[in-house]
Amino acid sequence: MKRKLTVFLPSTERYIQRGWVRFHSSLYYISFARNTWEQSRQFCLQRGADLVIINTKAEQDFTRQFNRFTWLGLHNDTKTGKWTWVDGTLLTDSFKFWGPGEPNSYEGKNENCAEIRFFELEDSWNNIPCEDQNFWICEKEVAP
Question: pTM of the entire structure?
Fold first, then answer.
């Protein structure tokens, strides 16, 4: 009788085999479907990740390369009225990449979620209603 050989892959390798991409110290999943901001976040959380948080200019450039409208892990917290990352960190004035004239309330809409929209610009962020449908990017930090 033949014995099956079971190979246990390191956690990072398993994610890469499932379509995740490694960049610096994180793994990223770029969706092929569209969902609301909350549904997109739930997808990420169910996989041990969360919507992407932009921490560096290099990461900002990395996320722009996919040339599709994608949710960021950034939302306008209705309790505080401040733009907040999914980990609870406040968006700082010294590190943000809003597109020209953003954030705004286009046509009077309640636009409390952030997306990457203007790929060709370094300042590519836009705010839109959280109920809109977008692609998304999950991020999971991994050991270096």
Answer: 0.85
